[in-house]
Amino acid sequence: MANSSNVSIDQSSTPEIRKVSTGQPFVWLRAGLADLFETPIASIAYGLLFAIAGDIILIFSWRHPHLFTAAISGFLLLGPILAAGLYEISRRKEQGLTSTFVESLSGLQRNRESLAFFGLALAALGIAWERISAILFALLSGANATTATELLRQLIGDPQQWPFLALWLFIGALLALLVFALSVISVPLLLDRRIDTVSAILLSLKAFAGNYPVLLLWAALIVLLTLVGFASLLFGLIIIMPILGHASWHAYRDLVE
User: Fold this and answer.
1) Which SS3 state, helix, strand or coil, does residue 14 take?
2) What whole-number distance in Å separates Cα of residue 133 and Cα of residue 125?
3) How many CB atoms lie within 10 A of CB 221?
4) What integer pLDDT is reported at residue 66 of this predicted model?
């Protein structure tokens, strides 16, 4: 058995991308749930961290509407790198190894420069979205809400605000789709193989282009389940985020030879 401190494959050639069937996202979710049941303590520890992060977002951005909406979006944008420990738990499980929360962090030490570079790239995209969101709210909406609730009421209740809302959603969706395409397999790949960030991103784009109907369904499921987690006053995130993290590892395994 390979030592868990090493990447599983010493990659000397570019891996191939597989085609997957339409219903595969539901298989990934079932596999993610199975991983959660097998490593409940370490997995739920990550779920608690996601829930606490969500609480912090709600508390500090509630009275800054443009920050609130950008922060919720940013939570989704940064999810792939935040879930790296969950990928490591699933990777170790494949090798017959148990995982504690501390042991799962060891995966971040492999290929750490590439992981850090990718994390910085995602953070930069998150900051760019916050600035775009702020400009749109300042120049286009004309809304003067002081809380997120007031903003939502203004945008939905005033038909004159609907074009702004549609524009904001359209730009946010495009950015989210870009981030998803860049990251759908990048972080698991960087954890699993000796590969540089640019190559991982290019492979992720190739996987998305070759399987976009399936991966669009997968993206929709991720967004839907994350929103369910927020709607449950963040309690749902404690379970939902570990399932999604583990499932994303299985998505990577299916998509990359």
Assistant:
1) coil
2) 12
3) 16
4) 65
**Short-list 44, 41, 31, 42, CA closest to 236:** 44
Query: How much is the pTM?
Result: 0.87
User: CB of 83 within 8 A of CB of 187?
Assistant: yes
Along the chain (257 residues), what's the average pLDDT of each consecutive run of 10 residues?
A: 42 78 97 96 94 82 71 74 92 92 87 90 84 75 64 77 82 89 94 92 96 96 90 90 96 95
CB 194 within 8 A of CB 11: yes
Distance CA 257, CA 255 (A): 7
DSSP state at residue 98: -
- Enter the tokens of residue 125: 């995209």
Provide the token pair at 165.
Answer: 């809302």
Alpha-carbon span 86 to 79, nearest angstrom: 11
**What tokens appear for 215 in the block?**
């991966």
Q: Which two tokens stand for residue 36?
A: 């959660």
CA 33 from centre of chain: 17
Q: Could you say which DSSP state residue 10 is in?
A: -
With vertex at residue 35, the alpha carbon angle to CA 49 and CA 86, rounded to the nearest 5 degrees, is: 35
Q: In this structure, which amino acid lies at residue 17?
A: I
Whether the CB-CB separation of 243 and 37 falls below 8 Å is answered with: no
Looking at residue 88, what is its pLDDT? 94
Q: What does the radius of gyration of the chain's CA atoms come to, in whole angstroms?
A: 19
Q: First CA to last CA across the chain, in angstroms?
A: 20
Backbone angles phi, psi at 178, to 5 degrees: -60, -50
Closest CA to 190 of 244, 248, 242: 248
Residue 234 has a pLDDT of 85
